[in-house]
Amino acid sequence: MSDGYVNSTVSGGIATVTFHHPKSNSLPGHILRGLADAITAMGKDPEVRVIVLRSDGEKAFCAGASFDELVSINDAATGLAFFSGFAHVINAIRKAPVLVIGRIHAHTVGGGVGLACAVDIAYAHEKASARLSELAIGIGPFVVGPAVERKVGSGTFGLLSASPNLRREADWCVTRGLYAEAFPTLEALDARIDAHTKELAAYSPEAMAELKRVMWKGTEDWDQLLIERARISGRLVLSDFTRAAIAKFKAAVAKG
After folding, report:
1. For 48-97, how does the pLDDT look when each residue is reduced to its tens digit (9 = 90+)?
2. Which 8-state DSSP code applies to residue 7?
3. Which CATH superfamily, name and number, covers 5-201?
C-alpha cells in the first residue's frame, strides 16, 4: 500500500476503478499495469454497465509518469516497456464495451491529462487545472497524444504540448472539450457522476457497446500506434536533457 494501489468495486452495474500513489498519484509501472488490468476486467464483467475512473487523495488527480521510475530507465527496451503502460491503459479504456467516466477532482499533469482525455466523459472540480508537461523534461506527450488530440483537436493539442509549464484552468478545459463540465464543490461533482452513472446503468448494454464502437471509430490502429509512440518516449527518456531536468525538479521538491 505504501507504493500505491489500484482497487475495483462493482455496485448496481457501476464499476469504480480507483488508483492512488503517495507521490501525488504519479504513475509507476505497476499502477499502470493495475489500471489496464482492472479496466479490462470490468469491461468483461457482464454485470458492469459503466466504469468510473478516479483517484484517491486530495493533492492531484494524477501527476503523470513517476519520476522515480523514469530515472531508473537505463536502456531503450526498459523505456519502451514503461511507456507502453500508458498505451495499455488508454487502449483498455478504448476497448471497454461500456462508457468510462472520469472523476477529475484536482489538477492533472502529463500522463494524467492523457487519462482525462482517454475517458469517454470527464467531469471535473473547478480547481482541476491541466498541464501537458512532457516537453519540459525532454520527452513530449507522444503516447497520450492521440487521446488528447482526439478529445480537444489538433490545434489545442499543439498548444498544450508547446506550453508545458502553463496550467490551464478547468473552465478553459471545459471550453476546449477536455472536460465535459466543472463543478464548484466535490459534492456537486460526485452528485453529477452518481446521477449520470445510474442513468447509464439502466440502458441497454448492447446499445451501449455499439455506441462505444461508433464513438471510437478511426482508432483501430491504436494498438500499434501507441506502442510506436512509446518507443519514441522510451528513447528520449535516456537523453542527458531529460536526466538533468528530472534531477532539477526532484531537487526543487526536496527543498520544499
Report:
1. 999 999 999 988 999 999 999 998 999 999 999 999 999 999 999 999 99
2. E
3. 2-enoyl-CoA Hydratase; Chain A, domain 1 (3.90.226.10)
